[in-house]
Every structure is written in C-alpha cells, then in structure tokens.
Amino acid sequence: MKQASKLIHSCFLRANKPVTSFISTTHLISLYPQQRQKNQQKRSLRVAARPSDLVGETPLLDLTHFLKSHGQSNDSDTTTNCRLYGKMESLGPCSSVKDRLGRSMIDEAERLNQITPGKTTLVEPTSGNTGIALAFLARERGYKCILTMPETMSLERRMMLLAMGCEVVLTPKETAVPGALAKAKEIMEGLGENGFMLQQFENPANAKVHRETTGPEIWKDTDGTIDILISGVGTGGTVTGISQYIKGYPDGDLPPLKPSLYTVAVEPKEQMLLTEAKGGSKQGPQGPHKIQGMGAGLIPSVIDLNLIDEVFPVHSDDAMDTTRDLWMGGIPAGVSSGAIVNAAVQVCRRPENMDKVAVCIIPSFGERYFTHPMFEGIKEEASNLTKQPLPEPYDNTEFGFETARG
Q1: What's the pTM?
Q2: Which among 52, 90, 96, 98 is annotated as catalytic?
Q3: Catalytic member of 95, 96, 231, 336
Q4: Which helix (H) or strand (E) holds 318?
Q5: What is the span of the domain harbouring residue 339?
Q6: Is residue 6 flagged as an active site residue?
Q7: Is 98 a catalytic residue?
C-alpha cells in the first residue's frame, strides 16, 4: 500500500499537479490504472509514414559569427550588430530546398488527377536538385521519370538520379536550362498522353509551397523579427513564396505581416538577367557560370520581380571561396549556398542594417558537389594520400613496405 501511494505521489509530481485535497488511498489505487491508460492514449509516436513526409520544418542556424570572421565589425557588443540566420534546407530528406518543390508539384498534379502511378512518365528539365527531389518522389509514388539537364551538372547528381532509377539526358552547356527544356519538350512529344511535364519554372505549386511552409516556418522561428531575406534564384519559387507570406499576398488572402521586409535575390555575376530585368546594368563578361542551381539563363514566370528589393550579383569565384569558408566552419553546403552567404555578409555589413535580423537560405548539402571545380585541389590531395606504416608489433613488410618498420 505504501509503495502504491509513493508511485501515485510521484505521478502527480511529474505532471506538476499538486494534490489539493485528500483522497482515500484505495480510491487512488483504483484510479491509477485508468489514469495510466488515459495518458498512454494521449501519447503519439513521431514516425513518418513515407520519405516525403520528412520534407520541411528545417531549422535555422545562427551564422552571426560568420559576419565577425568576415569583417563586419570588431565591436565586442554583438547586440549592436545585424544577426544572420541560415535556413538549413540542406537538411531535407534529399538534402535540398527542392524537396519541397518536388512534393508540392506532384501532390498538386495527383490532386488534379493529371498523373497516374504506374502509367505516367514524369519529364522535367532540371539543374539537378529538383531532379533528385522528383526522383525520390517518383520512386516513392510509383512513376517513371526522365530528367534533362545541362552537361555541367556534377557527376554526383547524375549518379544519384541513376541510382534511383531515373533516365538522365544531358544537353549542351552553352544552352543552359533553355536547352534542357527544349529536349524535355521533344521527349514529351514522343510519350504522348503518357508523359507529363511538371514545369517547375511555371508551376504555381512552386511559390505556393514556400508561401505555405517555408515562409511560415521562418516567421515562427524568428518570432516575426526577420527584417531581411537573402535567397538565390533558380526557379524563383523560394524567394517569391517566402516574400508573399511575409509581405502579404492579396490573391491568397494573406494579410501583410511585415511589408517592410527587404528581399534580396542573388544571381551569378556572369549571368545578370534579373539585374537587367529590374532596370540595372550587367557587369563584366556574361556567359556560363559555376554556381549550380542558380542563374538558369532565363527569367522564370514563377518569380514576382515586384517583391524583389535588390538583386545582388556574386561571381562564381567569390561563391566558391565562401563555400570553402562554410565547409571550414563545419557547414558542408553547395556552391549556391556560398553565393547566398557571400551576398548576405555584404548586405549585413551595411550601417543601415545594424540591429536587424537577416535570414539567408542554405539550399543544398555539399557532398553532391565533389566533382565541381571548387574541389579539384581536394580531389587531387585525396588521390595522392598514401598508407602509413603501423607501430610494433606489426610487421609492415606484410603490407607492402620494404622493412618491418616501414
């Protein structure tokens, strides 16, 4: 009886419910099994039913220290400086922000009965990450998938797509995404009614998913304090959807939460189409660049240029340098992340942005970029590594060395 009373007493303490009246021990013992069963019924296992259920709810990472290491201010009072947070889209199930886009487009197409598992072949031009997202969703849902992409896309991306059963068609690098799009349309003609192109550059589900998920997540996790958004532009869905949620979107009955949000779109300096579209002038030679996932060679219809307050061009070399810095800071991200953080650091340095909160998008994980030119030196170093002799009691002649000690 005493043991049962102690058990019940500890139960009340754990639940932070003080006993305010006396109840007979016998009555409490008879209630305990019922209470325990009721508590067990309230519990729920946090288990995803399928891989696509893991998309979204990515965390923010404090990158303010990155501003210090890149010369924002030497003032020891960090409260006077701009704060920079990274939205870690690289932590999604297939390690990129495009996981959201892939799920959104396929969910919407299924809702409208435009595609049928086991019958429809999904066709899409992609710079890589959207293709990976579509590949894993196609495998999950039972669709065939054919993806076209410029030949400049990394070997790792191609391998991931092939490993998930996709057909990959490469197109000339000189034509960028428009060439991949032309090839995709040709493939669609051959498939007839069994083919379906999701058209990420035009699909309304693109901005929609960021308006409904990414934007609300950032607003919630910053407690509404976000002042500046810095995002790269591939299809334009991320920067548009987040800005719509925070600045307001009358067509979707979304009232403005913070109309003053300053939206910065990042593009390659070698391909300044957005700058030109906003009335600016191109700087330096224009052409192919090395920032995979950005600068598609066209102005996507998804993007709402009216929401963009500034277009910030970043050269591929600067993007790669900042990406290396991210890796050395323990953040293995892709080269587009380097471009975005490079722009974010410079925006946050401005005197008018003191005491403000900035959020930049970290679009993808870096492991799929090892064949990118940025890693040529690392690849050579890794290839030239040699084995080292072992200490006693090992006889190193057994391992190919000339003497027992190596």
Answers
A1: 0.84
A2: 98
A3: 336
A4: helix 316-328
A5: 56-91+207-382
A6: no
A7: yes
